Amino acid sequence: MKRCPQLQRASVRQPPVVPSQYTLRLRCELARGGENGQVYGQYRSAQYLLPKGLGLKFSIESTNVPQPYEVTWRIQNSGDEAAAAGQLRWDRNQQDCWTSTKFKGTHRMTCEVKRHGNVVAVAHHFIRIRGAGRR
Length: 135
Description:
A hairpin with a 2-residue loop joins strand 8 and strand 9 (118-129). This protein has helices at 5-9, 80-84; strands spanning 24-32, 38-42, 49-50, 55-63, 70-76, 89-92, 97-100, 105-115, 118-129. It is mostly beta strands. It contains two helices and nine strands, in the order αβββββαββββ.
């Protein structure tokens, strides 16, 4: 039985690459007061360490995927705090996605856009959150 070399090298942690004619750009806004708070700025992917206690609002900044489409947000948290809270992974199916800077570590938000049940565009945004007492 032959083995496919691409499958042998594939990582369980890395999502599959979706070949697509479509583009997808994400926007992450910072909000005071946690989720649904007052938005005051933007955060580019892994731009700098964020403090705990902020709200993060994710949305699609731009895409060329024609309507109608479905949006799924997937978070992959890292670190002992997220693990202890049972929050290493979760999904939400909605246009915009609110979350917060609750757990220290580096986390990845993935947005998947589906048309007719098939994923046609994927984008990732990394969030870096500092632990208590670090500046």
